[in-house]
Design goal:
four-stranded antiparallel sheet, alpha+beta
Length: 129
């Protein structure tokens, strides 16, 4: 398991998950609490950029999993196809998100991984000028 001990929460993405019609992020918060006893904070819903393949134009949900729920989340993570933002950045997939989403929800993780030497400078998000 990835070590997140110093963080209060860990940013995650639920790829390809759309909210039911008329529901808000509170629906996902309640679902995780009731079904898995996992505490999360709902951040936003976003659509990926129109790139080729399965990653393009899909709807993703961005959440923060609270530290006290990380072990439980790790147990279900694969079955719900969730990804830690660190996994997205390490696999150079942060580019499928628009600049606003990158700046607000992904950039901090990318900077930390760059500083730790886990990603190369050429793999960072290229901002428009």
């Amino acid at each position: 398991m990835v070590s997140f001990l110093k963080e209060e929460s860990v940013r995650c993405i639920l790829p390809g998950v759309t909210l039911p019609l008329g529901k808000s992020g509170d629906y996902i918060v309640k679902l995780f609490k009731d079904k898995y006893d996992i505490d999360i904070d709902y951040l936003t819903q976003t659509k990926t950029l129109p790139v080729e393949g399965a990653f393009g134009s899909r709807v993703d949900q961005i959440i923060d999993v609270q530290r006290d729920s990380l072990e439980k989340f790790a147990e279900i993570k694969r079955s719900i196809n969730a990804l830690y933002v660190t996994e997205i950045v390490e696999s150079n997939q942060q580019h499928i998100y628009n600049e606003r989403v990158y700046l607000r929800y992904i950039q901090r993780t990318e900077k930390a991984l760059l500083k730790e030497g886990k990603i190369a400078k050429e793999d960072t998000y290229q901002m428009t000028k």
